[in-house]
Design goal:
Helix content is 4%, strand content 68%. It has a 21-stranded antiparallel beta sheet that branches.
Amino acid sequence: MLIRALLAAVLWTAGAWLRPAAWAEVQVGVTSQVEYNDNLFLEPSGGSSDVLFRLLPWMDVAHGGHRHSATLSYRPSYTWYRKNPELDQAGHEAELEVAADLSRRVDLLFNTRLERSEEGTSDQQPVEGTSRLPVTNLSSSLTVHRKTGRDEFFDVTCTGRSLDYDSRSVSEDSREAEGEVALRTMAGDHRAAILEGRYAKGWYDTSASYRQGWASLEVEQTVSAIKRLFGKVDVSTYTSDGRTDYLTVNPYAGLAGEWPHGRYDLGAGVLIRDEEGGDTTCEFSLVGTAEIEKTWPRGSLTASLETGHDEDYIDFDTPGFTTYATGLVTGSYLPARGWSLDGQCEVRGDDYQENRPAKEDRRDVTLTLTVGGQRQIRKWGVVRLEGSHRVRRSTLNDQEYDENSIILTLNVYTR
């Protein structure tokens, strides 16, 4: 019944796309880049440098009506290496997102994304270096959101992901299917309970498959219009024939709200971890986010903190369960009309609890510093110069690296 309902929703949305729209926008452009990189493969020492040339035509399409909207973007690319011509390759990045109001209480959101890029240049943080060989990342998700009352809802999400590596890569191809449900219900005007559950199964090309389960129960109490107290318990399990199984329980409590120039949602508790064939551990846990922003007539400054636990195994090279903390500071300044300067500093710490055979636990600290400036060219283009420095220090020496890069970009587009 659920599959039939989801299929009907997709067909309804496709029909809405074909009907006359309230509005539609199309923008096209071409981006060209020259990059110098002094450590192309993120090696611990003596990194290989190279100059890269990229050409990226692109297109963005947006379409909307009274009860639906859709966006489509496509960015093909081609990259040339001056010293490593065997790595020359074509890339693709395409994304489709459709949102529709099926009824007064039911909404649908569909998203699919395809990215073919070089290892180490996608959104995923490189945890095991990079080969610069092509990798294709495909993900699709479908969410049905039902409003069951004031501040109450019931969500169902189905997600599929895949990673396909080049035949020369040492990494394994993988697939993952995931289902998730979320329920929020009110108990009076100021108290709510949120129940979430997720189950995923993944398959590697040659290694053993894995299964992940995750459940969460949260109770929150509204204190004021901008502040609430909450208590939460997260439970996760991991089972596989190729890695060590484990169970985690993470109870914590905290406070969420707003301050004059930002917001916060932070909780503290304990993380209990029971690993197959090992000891049960209990340690302090801090989970949540905080952000503050200050703006001036010509600039802005934002500082944020995120901390928590993560476990994502679709990438075969993922070390395992990690406790992380990320601090980020970004700033921008407009020195003159048509000119802009910006900078970003990010520090991330990861504590990996390795569950692969014959692998050691490790701790990483990664610093990324980026500064850039750009000039608007009338109303049809932007030229930008950007420099970045990235460094990682680790308890395992072969996971350390220093990388510097400079990128010159010209982006020309229609108005």
